[in-house]
């Protein structure tokens, strides 16, 4: 039986774990605190045993400060593990600002605001020859989409018509990871087919829920948190052709329209 070890059980990883378990996989997770299906990150003996046993190893843990905690504590063990497949969930933020132009896996990295993420991406790529690095854009899905922001009164429309974001439905990311089990190692952008302004998602979500769109605000008027505001410092379109060509993957939700409709249907 294939055995997946996932370090970091966040939104995307948890959704992937459920998918694999339904398909008959054994899945072990590692998180800060142990639970019935997960090992505590600090339980080194248990984590080392899980690394040695796994056929597939995936890290979804982002850097903390200047360091990647998984590489710092378990990188040597993962490098020497007998696993058949290894993967790392990175970010398209490594490409930095492209002034709205397209970026692909061959585009330069290191120009963005996430220096630690850029270093972690490179370090994971150098760890093993079988490494798959998945560079992910904005992730949305059930319970975490423009629909939820509209329902909760947290939606904004920012008057930046030339600002473009790429995104991916969480299940399309999971399908891309699964497709890579039989594909070659390397870097893969897992994004949908329609980079666009965030306002279009908010307007579509409002229409689906029968609610008026929030007013159009300047970035200053929106009074966003520093974290939220920082996303508007970069502007790029993420190309997904490599994953399509080499993995035979294609997003089930090629645009936000299909993705939001699926989120609405799942919410009932």
Explain this structure to me?
It comes from Sphingobium herbicidovorans (strain ATCC 700291 / DSM 11019 / CCUG 56400 / KCTC 2939 / LMG 18315 / NBRC 16415 / MH). The chain has helices spanning 11-22, 44-53, 69-80, 115-127, 146-151, 170-179, 198-209, 219-222, 226-230, 241-247, 256-267, and strands spanning 3-7, 26-31, 38-40, 56-59, 85-91, 102-103, 131-136, 138-140, 157-158, 167-169, 186-189, 216-217, 237-238. The two termini are 34 Å apart. The chain has a seven-stranded parallel β-sheet with strand order 3-2-1-4-5-7-11, sandwiched between helices. It has a two-stranded parallel sheet with strand order 6-13. A two-stranded parallel ribbon has the order 8-10. It contains eleven helices and 13 strands. It is of the alpha/beta class. 38% of the residues lie in helices and 18% in strands.
């Amino acid at each position: 039986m294939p055995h997946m070890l996932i370090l970091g059980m966040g939104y995307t990883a948890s959704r992937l774990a459920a998918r694999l378990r339904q398909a008959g996989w054994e899945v072990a997770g590692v998180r800060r605190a142990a639970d019935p299906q997960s090992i505590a990150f600090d339980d080194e003996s248990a984590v080392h045993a899980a690394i040695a046993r796994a056929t597939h190893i995936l890290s979804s843990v982002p850097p903390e400060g200047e360091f990647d905690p998984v590489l710092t504590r378990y990188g040597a063990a993962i490098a020497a593990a007998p696993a058949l497949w290894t993967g790392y969930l990175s970010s398209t933020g490594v490409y930095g600002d492209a002034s709205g132009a397209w970026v692909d896996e061959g585009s330069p990295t290191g120009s963005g605001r996430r220096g630690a993420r850029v270093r972690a991406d490179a370090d994971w790529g150098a760890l093993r020859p079988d490494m798959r690095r998945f560079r992910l854009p904005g992730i949305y899905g059930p319970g975490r989409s423009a629909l939820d922001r509209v329902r909760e009164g947290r939606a904004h429309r920012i008057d930046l018509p030339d600002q473009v974001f790429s995104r991916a439905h969480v299940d399309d990311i999971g399908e891309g990871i699964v497709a890579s089990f039989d594909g070659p190692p390397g870097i893969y952008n897992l994004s949908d087919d329609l980079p666009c302004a965030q306002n279009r998602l908010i307007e579509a979500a409002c229409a689906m829920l029968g609610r008026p769109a929030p007013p159009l605000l300047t970035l200053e008027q929106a009074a966003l948190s520093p974290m939220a505001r920082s996303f508007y410092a970069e502007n790029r379109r993420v190309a997904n052709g490599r994953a399509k060509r080499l993995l035979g993957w294609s997003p089930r939700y090629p645009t936000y329209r299909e993705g939001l409709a699926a989120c609405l249907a799942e919410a009932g």
